[in-house]
Specification:
single chain, 421 residues, alpha+beta, BirA Bifunctional Protein, domain 2, 16 strands, binds adenosine monophosphate
């Protein structure tokens, strides 16, 4: 026999009933996005490699080590998207969304791909809920975006979180900071190979190194906050002021830089208790220069991504396990089964989820199937019921039974289930 084919390492099948929790998270996010005026984009999973190498930065972990990149049959280099921001900006520019009046508020949901070492909370295909607001540099928009993120997490019941904030300043502040940081980094020895190289070419990335040893060496390093010019410092102060006003708890983390090169000014990350090493559930920030990097006009913007896999891992297992109340038709004999088919359609027309057995099971086996499917009501239908036009309606929770007229069944059940009777 041929060997069984398995899924690719780091890529998971998400199965029912877990999928209902995924749908619930997406629905809550969509509701909040609607309230804040965000509209959905559906974007391709594949993009030209250049989109990511140009925007994320060639010396970041993502571009240097983690992208799924391959030539297509024509020889063009394509990449499975490792993140959404660059492609949202690409799509906005290509479709001229940036020319419309006002801030363009966009969101997109779906899988991202990074060739990382799989572990709990880290997958090679993972899923993000992503939003981007394009067209304004106002700190008030930064605050609104953060409020919206916290609103989504709050509505999902995720309260044990810490919001970390920093400002990365504008490119001029960053230049000043990088110069100071470089001097500091040269004074220490023992960096990992990546940091040894990066301390000269892209010193900001050293702050983001995952090695505990490098993090230890960074103690006492200069911080961005000390290098912010007046405008960037003012922007940051206003964001903090608004978060205070709206009572969003936050902590400043002066070494937060995030793993992508395009961030400017506000950067943030949300960390959840109970996730172990991979504890960031969401991250985001402002990226005022990204549009120009991609050949577009000046288009200041800010956004975030929620890691949906991790979010679901940290939410209680029962959160979002919603399934509609179900009716099961237990039919015995060909005539009853035939009648049951019509009844099923009637029930569904009334908006009731209804099922029956298709494998010729005994009544006892049908009852246990109904139980397994989580049916709230079972209707028992045999020859006698067909003759009298009455069926037995059984409430699974109590075991109580009553006779009801078949004709009245959909209306009666709809009333029961909506709690009217
Ligand atoms: P990033 O795009 O790296 O800022 O990531 C945003 C969020 O996506 C993170 O806070 C994580 O929750 C999630 N995330 C990033 N990489 C992975 C991964 N390999 N597996 C699962 N979730 C991830």
């Amino acid at each position: 026999m041929a060997g069984q084919i398995r899924a690719i390492r780091g890529m998971r099948d998400i199965l029912p009933p877990e999928t209902s929790r995924w749908q619930w998270v997406e629905q809550v996010a969509r509701e909040v996005f609607d309230l804040y005026g965000y509209r959905e984009l559906r974007l391709p999973l594949l993009e030209r490699t250049e989109l990511f190498s140009r925007s994320i930065g060639v010396d970041t972990d993502i571009v240097a080590k983690e992208m799924y990149t391959f030539p297509d049959r024509h020889g063009d280099s394509l990449t499975l998207r490792p993140e959404a921001t660059a492609q949202v900006v690409r799509a906005a520019l290509e479709n001229r969304l940036d020319r419309a009046p006002g801030v363009q508020k966009l969101y997109t949901l779906g899988p991202m791909f990074r060739y990382e070492r799989p572990q709990k909370g880290r997958y090679r295909q993972f899923h993000q809920i992503n939003c981007e607001a394009l067209g304004a540099d106002a700190p008030d928009l930064d605050a609104e975006v953060i409020l919206m993120l916290m609103e989504i997490l709050g509505r999902l019941g995720l309260t044990q979180v810490r919001l970390f904030l920093n400002s990365l300043g504008c490119p001029e502040c960053q230049q000043d900071f990088k110069a100071r940081l470089k001097l500091f980094l040269r004074t220490k020895e023992g960096w990992c190979d990546d940091c040894f190289r990066r301390r000269e070419i892209n010193p900001l990335r050293v702050l983001d190194c995952k090695s505990a040893h490098c993090q230890g060496l960074l103690k006492g390093s200069p911080v961005l906050k000390d290098c912010l010019d007046e405008a960037c410092a003012g922007h940051y102060a206003r964001v903090l002021e608004l978060l205070n006003r709206f009572r969003v708890p936050y902590e400043e983390n002066p070494r937060l830089v995030r793993g992508l090169d395009y961030y400017t000014r506000t950067a943030f990350e949300v960390v959840a208790a109970g996730l172990g090493a991979q504890d960031a559930v969401a991250g985001g920030g402002r990226y005022n220069g990204l549009s120009q990097e991609l050949g577009g006009p000046e288009l200041p913007a800010i956004g975030f991504a929620i890691g949906q896999d991790r979010l679901l891992e940290v939410l209680p297992p029962e959160a979002g396990r919603i399934s509609p109340p179900k009716v099961f038709l237990a039919a015995l004999g060909d005539a009853a089964r035939d009648r049951a088919l019509g009844l099923l359609q009637d029930l569904r027309r009334w908006g009731l989820a209804a099922e029956m057995d298709f494998q010729g099971r005994s009544l006892k086996a049908q009852m246990s199937l109904a139980d397994r499917l989580g049916a709230i009501y079972v209707i028992i239908l045999g020859n006698r019921e067909l003759e009298t036009g009455q069926a037995v309606l059984r409430r699974m929770a109590t075991g109580g039974q009553e006779q009801v007229a078949l004709k009245e069944l959909p209306a009666i059940l709809a009333n029961f289930i909506s709690g009217k009777v």
